[in-house]
Structures are given as C-alpha cells and as structure tokens.
Amino acid sequence: MYALAALLAFLMRDLLRYRVAVARSNLAAALPELDAATRARVLRQHYDSLADVLFELPRLATMPEAELRVRMTLPDMPAAHAQLAEGRPVLVLAAHQGNWEWLLQALALGFGVPFLAAYKPPHSGRADQLMLGLRGRFGTRMVPGKRLLREVLRRRGSAHAIGMVADQVPTSSPGRVWLRFMGRETAFFPGPAEIARAGGYTVYFLALRRMSRGYYETRFELIANAGENLDVPTLIGRYAARVEALVREHPEDWAWTHRRWKLEPPPTALPPALPPTA
Fold first, then answer.
1. Is residue 265 part of a domain?
2. CB 169 within 8 A of CB 263
3. CA dihedral 193, 29, 259, 245 (to 10 degrees)
4. In a domain, 128, yes or no
5. Is 181 exposed, middle or buried (0-12, 13-18, 19+ CB in 10 A)?
C-alpha cells in the first residue's frame, strides 16, 4: 500500500503538480524563517504524508478494531474519561494534521460514550453515503455542522463527546473570528466556542503526531474547563495557538495544499493577538 502511496505522491507533486503553487506559496508566507532548501524538503514530505493518508483512509473499511487501537494511540484518554465520569461532556478539537480520519474512529472506540463528529456533507449524495459508512464503522455519528447545536441542546445532561476539525476556511459561515495565525490575518469558525458555551463542555485540543509510517499518537491539551464561559475570540484563540505550535513542530503533516488564506479580512478589523497558551 505504501509503495503505491509513494507513487501517488510523485504523480501529484512532480507530474500533475497538484496545488504545488498553492502549497509553496502557503509555506513561504507562513514559515518565512525557513530557507528555500528546508521549505522544499517540507513540501516533498508533505506530499508523501498526504498520499499516505489518502491510502490509509479506505483501510477503515476492513481494519480490525485491535489494529486501529495499535496504530492510533491515545495515552491521555483517562483525563477525558474523568470529565465524563463527573457528568461533564467533552469537546475535542483537532486540526488537518496527519490522519484525522483514523483519529475520529479511535476516539469513538476510546471514549466509551456516544461520540458525535461535525462535518460538511459533500455535494454528492453517493459520496456522502460512502464516507458515512467508513466514518461510522466504529461508532462515530457524523452530524452536519448546521445541525450540531440542535444535537448539543438535545443531549444536555448526558455523557457524550463531540469532535470537530476546525482549522478549515469558514467560507459559508455567517460568523468569523479573525486572528493572527502563522503570521497572517486568518478567519476561523466561531462554532467550537459557541458549542462549548451552550453545552458546558470541557474542551481539549488533540495534538496528533505521526510516530512512524502508519502509526500515530495524540496528546490531549486542555483549552477550557467546563463552565469557564470564555468569549469566542479567547477560546478560538487558544485553539489557534495550539494548532500553530503543532504545525511549526511538524510542518510536513499539515494541509498546505488547502487554500487556507483565500478570505480577506474586513478593512476595519484588526485581528487580536493570540492569547498565551495555558
């Protein structure tokens, strides 16, 4: 499988030039401190990582539960279990770093309570059904982002967990939070903060790291305790700061081919500085 992934990486990067210009521009603007040779190395490694993830995704259709638990380890899960045992629901925020699809499935196995994950349904109903089948195999319930708040209110008072990958561009969101991220004014979804306040969630950032090819580990980093009632910019700022720290630590695994900065900030908006990480 990984031999085929290496071939796909070569085709995307060197032959088809799939979004190479986008990735190169993003890297140069976000990590200007790296010299040209280092950025070129990160770019090569990024396409290798992307191809691996694309081949790893369909493995969810046949991967045994025991194998997933070995390939995606969650050593900090007891902290979340303690919150759930005390009746506090848990919200986990991840980034497009490494294999987030395997991460969602490992969380569904590890939490031991109903686990919901927000997503944006694709335009194709056939593709949606295919992905729902893969993503729901280990118990993850995918909920369209527009219906997530309704689910939060319906489940108040019950032990459950919600997962969100919240570092994409909020093109269709009516509200946006503008922050300084990777040295640039960047729009974020306000949704995670609104969900956290509405449901009284303990909020964690999941720092996902590739340990070796096909093996990952995630660290739970506390963003907000239940009942803190942080305002939207503060909570999203804490999340953004952790995403940035992780990207700088392992830049090859982030989604550089994504057009992350295609939105322009309002001319009167001055993005607040990211708050210090707690």
1. no
2. yes
3. -40
4. yes
5. buried
Rg (CA), the chain: 18
Question: Which pLDDT score, from 0 to 100, does residue 271 have?
Answer: 55
pLDDT of residue 14: 95
Tell me the whole-structure pTM to 2 decimals: 0.91
- Pairwise CA distance, residues 185 & 178, whole Å: 6
Give the β-pairing of 177-181 and 115-119.
unpaired
CA distances from 172 to 145, 178, 193, 237 (A): 11, 15, 17, 20
Number of domains in the chain: 1
Q: Which residue reads 């196995």 in tokens?
A: 109
- The answer to whether residue 144 is domain-embedded is yes
Does the pLDDT at position 162 exceed 70?
A: yes
Nearest residue to 257 via CA among 35, 12, 4? 12
| Strand intervals (E) in the chain | 72-73, 90-94, 115-119, 141-144, 161-165, 177-181, 184-188, 202-212, 215-224
SS3 49: helix
Is 278 among the domain residues? no
- pLDDT, tens digit, 9 for 90 and up, residues 32-55: 999 999 999 999 999 999 999 999
- The 10 Å Cβ neighbour count of residue 26 is 23
The confidence band for 161, taking pLDDT boundaries of 50, 70 and 90, is very high
- The parent domain of residue 139 ranges over 2-253
Residue in 219, 192, 174 with CA at minimum distance from that of residue 78: 219
What's the average model confidence in pLDDT over 246-256?
A: 96
- CATH code for the domain of 109: 3.40.1130
Structure tokens at 35: 């010299």
DSSP state of 277: P
